[in-house]
Backbone:
């Protein structure tokens, strides 16, 4: 069965939580990278909102200037279902670029 690979991006994430991806079916997130585009260290939160709760994948993680934090590695994956929203937030305005790789509409 063919899979639909997708990428989602967000530039300049800051102090308000930004939705990078909202699942429209059963989807699998296979990669999340967050890059610090500022000249100082930032702290980021990455979480999934399931409609009522924020479930953190990482909280207040420091990223030094010019560095990237890879949230998913080593073959890990997250399955999300319809309506789940992947969100990112930084403690500094317009400071993080985000790249997410996902498989859309996996078999159930």
Residues:
């Amino acid at each position: 069965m063919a899979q639909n690979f997708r990428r989602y991006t967000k530039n300049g994430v800051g102090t308000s939580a930004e939705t990078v991806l909202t699942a429209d079916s059963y989807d699998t997130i296979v990669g999340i990278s967050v890059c610090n585009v500022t000249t100082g260290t930032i702290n980021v939160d990455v979480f999934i909102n399931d409609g009522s709760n924020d479930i953190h994948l990482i909280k207040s993680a420091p990223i030094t200037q010019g560095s990237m934090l890879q949230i998913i590695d080593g073959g890990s994956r997250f399955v999300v279902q319809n309506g789940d929203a992947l969100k990112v937030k930084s403690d500094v305005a317009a400071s993080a670029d985000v790249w997410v790789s996902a498989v859309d509409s996996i078999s159930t």
User: Anything to note?
Assistant: The beta strands are 4-13, 18-22, 27-36, 42-49, 54-63, 68-70, 78-80, 85-90, 96-104. Residues 79 and 97 are 22 Å apart (CA to CA). Residues 4-104 form a domain with the Jelly Rolls fold (CATH 2.60.120.340). The chain is about 0% helix and 60% strand.
